[in-house]
Predict the structure.
Amino acid sequence: MLLRILNIRLLQLWRISKELGVFRVFVSGLIILIILLYLRNAFIYNQNLTILVCFFLTTIIHSLRKDKKIISSISIFPAFIYFVEYVAYFLPLLIIIAFSTNIIYLILSLTSIFLVVLLNFQCSKNIATISIFSRFVPKENFEWLAGLRVGGIFIFLFWILALFLSFLPYISLVILCVILLMLNSFYEFNEPLNILVINEYDAKQFLKTKLKQHIKFYLKLIAPVVVLYGIINYELWYVTICFCAVNIFCFSTIIINKYASYKPTKGISANIILSLLIAISNIILPLLIFTIPFGLISYKQAITNLNYYLDDFN
């Protein structure tokens, strides 16, 4: 059973690689390599980061995955399957931890992964929870309405944590980056064509309006944390301003990337991989060397792609 599931994951990885294309696979691989090298240096400097990185990555993936009921129905020990899957996903990271730190930190990192899967948590689509969150979400932001049904409670908990840890330098900003990683899943699936054309905008006007609506709401989400952090850590004002600029750019690029390969009612797995790498560049700034050109290229691709569907409104 375990080998069959791992084989399915390999087939999914192959399908995603085909969707990405040779050039994007090469760029994505290069970005992942830079991330791993960056983490290697960070782990040497602070070995405790190994546990935090493994814990946060596992928490994000485990809270957003949608196949828990299926795996629970076909396996007596679903937690073991989750654990082996995550170890396979994080194998390059775990190898770096093994060679860059004490063996104890590798054991603790594996333990943090196992503890997360033991909890086997999942956001239920509770009507009360949905109604609380949906009060604050404009109807135009339908991706948020759908996404909050799955990960709303976790985003809220991370947001509260960021607010309470504002007195610590950088911690709140890192947590906001984690929230951005979770928001990435909101833009996994494409809306039907009738929703895309409802306002009768041309491609440029549609993208401009879309970005304006979503950035405006996103700013409302992060503003309390950023303002409080900026007041408490006023001596790091330049870090706060730089973070806001990069964070908004990464968020915008995630949205643009969705429409660069838009197909009605379909979700493209490759987009999620790219968007995750874009979101991570908010933490690892050298990745902006790739993210900024990619964002500009994706914008042109999005306009060209949307013109096919919105040509009647030009």
Remarks:
- The chain has two domains: 1-122, 125-314.
- Confidence is low (pLDDT under 50) at residues 123-129.
- The two ends are 53 Å apart (CA to CA).
- Residues 2-45 form the longest helix (44 residues).
